[in-house]
Amino acid sequence: MDEAFDMWEKSKTRYDYARNFKKWHARDLRDQILRDRNHPSVILWSVGNEIPEQAPDSLNSGARIMNDLCSIIRKLDTSRPIVTANNNPNPPNAIINSGATDLIGINYHIENWLKFKQDYPGKKLIVTESTSALQTRGWYQMPSDSIARVPKRWDIPYSTPHHNCSAYDNCSAPWGSTHEETWKVAKANPFVSGMFIWTGFDYIGEPTPYTWPSRSSYFGIVDLAGFPKDIYYMYQSECTTKTVLHLFPHWNWKPGQTIDMWAYYNNADEVELFLNGRSLGRQHKTGDQLHVMWKVPFEAGTLRAVSYKQGKQVASAEVKTAGAPNRIRLTADRRKITADGSDLSFVTIDIVDRDGNLVPDAENLVQFKLEGPGKIAGVDNGSPISMESFKADHRKAFHGKALCVIQSKQRSGIIRLTATSAGLADGIIEISSR
Predict the structure, then answer these.
(1) Is residue 151 reached through a cis peptide bond, with omega within 30 degrees of 0 on the bond before it?
(2) What pLDDT shows up at residue 356?
(3) Cα-flanking dihedrals φ and ψ of residue 74, to 5°?
(4) Range 85-94 average pLDDT
(5) pLDDT in tens, 135-148
(6) Is 129 left (phi over 0), alpha (psi -120 to 50) or beta?
(7) CA 90-95-99 angle, 5° bins
(8) Gap between the Cα atoms of 386 and 398, Å rounded
(9) Which of 111, 268, 357, 407 is 20 to 30 A off residue 46, Cα-Cα?
(10) Domains assigned to the chain
(11) Alpha helix (H) ranges present in 120-178?
(12) What rounded mean pLDDT belongs to the chain?
């Protein structure tokens, strides 16, 4: 969805685009359509996000501007539908009532999805912004079926000592919903043509529900370093044909703790969980469930999940109790890159124990040394509260992981990355640049 404006003639803030809308909107919108109309990834145009002219008292101006914007687009492209993203979807909505758009977009407001056919009979719905769930990769808060909506009020600062949000998918912003809550409604109602999730990736800014020292968002399905959060595998199990079995959380806890173990799976009838070889029983999804769960008293060792279809094993997944950090493991997404001065290889840094198990609470400082025709383009670890520079030759691990991005130079050769940390065996990887 290629979106043009965040405001029209009515402003949201003192110095926003509304000051220039009348003079520049036609030129800016034409330039955008001409720039992007040959991109196959663009499936629809949006001419406004949460526009103040939705209000019923803006009926004349809302309809006038909406028809003007749609006219500009349709002179340049008739192959894609036009929409606005509405955060006040209740009738009467001045923009929707203009009748100019091809689709009606709703931001959040799941209750309005359910009564859409009554509110707007014969119209087509797309969810233009949804979810706003909050998660920190690798951090879990139980009970996992207790959902937190935070912050409760914007005018009261919200904080916790840890500045984390649970990765169980049991935390969301008050205007939104968890990933599972949202997807269940979309999945059960075929007239919901699709939805755009806020957001695919974490990003700098808007550190809801926290303020400083949090400096990046918690909304992403994938964290700022590009590492998937657990919810990634729910979407993979629901929206792809790949066989999925994802067991979480980690298995490093205190003796006597009872842990909620979740599994996302597909292409199977049921999942069985084993603790150190002993079966803890089989579970299967019922109704609209999107995961299965066991409550497991912690006992050091191995948890193994096995999924079955028609009685035959389909997939397995394990989590093991990790020991002390022992070495650095490096894994590149691409071992061969182009020597053009811009190609990249993303190298994952894992802090592992003697047996190669990821240490889930490791925060070791890792130093990077690069040899050969390449340079370090950036480093990260996915932490929303890390104040470390993205342009550096070092990075602390966050929940056992960090990232180093290698960029080629304009000559061929072998790029050798060495990662070191006090008390750990070095990690070394070679990348071919040709």
Answers:
(1) yes
(2) 98
(3) -70, -20
(4) 95
(5) 999 999 999 999 99
(6) beta
(7) 100
(8) 9
(9) 111
(10) 2-237 (3.20.20.80), 242-320 (2.60.40.10), 327-433 (2.60.40.10)
(11) none
(12) 97
Which residue(s) pair with 197 in the sheet?
Answer: 130
First vs last C-alpha separation in the chain: 36
Share of the chain above pLDDT 90, in %: 97
Whole-number percent of the chain with pLDDT over 70: 100
Q: Residue 374 CB: number of other CB atoms within 10 A?
A: 25
Mean local confidence (pLDDT), 185-203: 97
d(CA 231, CA 170): 11
Do you know the residue count of the chain? 434
Q: Are 104 and 126 in contact (CB under 8 A)?
A: yes
Four-residue CA torsion sign, 161, 162, 167, 168:
negative
Please say whether the dihedral angle defined by the alpha carbons of residues 8, 9, 11 and 15, taken in this order, is positive or negative: positive
Is residue 381 within 8 A of residue 397, CB to CB? The reply is yes
Active site residues: 50, 129
Give the pLDDT score at 280. 98
Torsion of CA 25, 27, 30, 34, to 10 degrees: -140
Is pTM beyond 0.85 here?
Answer: yes
What's the rounded mean pLDDT across residues 20-27? 98
Question: For residues 189 and 191, what is the distance between their CA atoms, to the nearest angstrom?
Answer: 5
The pLDDT tens digits for 208-221 are: 999 999 999 999 99
**Rounded distance, CA 309 to CA 187, Å?**
23
